[in-house]
């Protein structure tokens, strides 16, 4: 097992699908349709490959926690529903791997909270993502009763944080200093 090779693969793949020129939702409708008809959405294809390769790591997955949490989060925040549905379960697998090794998933939790703050501040994330994140992880947790209560607490924590981050981002363009201050207090 060559850790550096796999690390390079994951980082390169995530860098590919998150590059600006592939963010089809930023294009005009005509340009979006033209690219979609000619090439399809390459992000989905590469995202599915990342997912498949993650699950092939077997016992070596633990080597990538917490290091791959940020890149995987960046990938799941791409506003493409099928990509999100296919890749958000990787987070549950990361939690499960760390839990099986240590009895908790604090490294994962700390890393995702830190990275989520950075990503949402950068303009990524939306209400749909929050709902998918919550429903997918809750559904995955139902299949593992030993960890389900911890996952539910984690999902609740992330949902609250994401709600506040999205509110904060929305009011930053607001003229009212009171609204901004109130939102900042809520976030803190």
From TrEMBL:
This is DOCK2 protein. It holds the Pfam family TPR_DOCK. GO terms for cellular component: cytoplasm; plasma membrane. It comes from the Eukaryota. InterPro entries: DOCK, TPR_DOCK. One of its GO terms (biological process) is cell migration. GO terms for molecular function: guanyl-nucleotide exchange factor activity; small GTPase binding. Residues 1-136 form the Dedicator of cytokinesis TPR repeats region domain.
């Amino acid at each position: 097992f060559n850790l550096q090779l796999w690390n390079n693969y994951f980082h390169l793949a995530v860098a590919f699908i998150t590059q600006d020129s592939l963010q089809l939702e930023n294009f005009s409708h005509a340009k979006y349709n033209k690219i979609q008809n000619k090439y399809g959405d390459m992000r989905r294809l590469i995202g599915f490959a990342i997912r498949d390769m993650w699950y092939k790591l077997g016992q070596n997955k633990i080597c990538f926690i917490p290091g791959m949490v940020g890149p995987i989060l960046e990938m799941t925040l791409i506003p493409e529903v099928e990509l999100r549905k296919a890749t958000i379960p990787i987070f549950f697998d990361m939690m499960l791997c760390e839990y099986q090794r240590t009895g908790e998933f604090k490294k994962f939790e700390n890393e995702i909270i830190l990275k989520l703050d950075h990503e949402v501040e950068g303009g990524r994330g939306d209400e749909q993502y929050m709902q998918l994140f919550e429903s997918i992880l809750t559904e995955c947790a139902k299949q593992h009763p030993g960890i389900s209560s911890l996952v539910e607490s984690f999902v609740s924590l992330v949902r609250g944080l994401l709600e506040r981050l999205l509110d904060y981002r929305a009011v930053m363009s607001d003229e009212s200093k009171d609204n901004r201050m109130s939102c900042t207090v809520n976030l803190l």
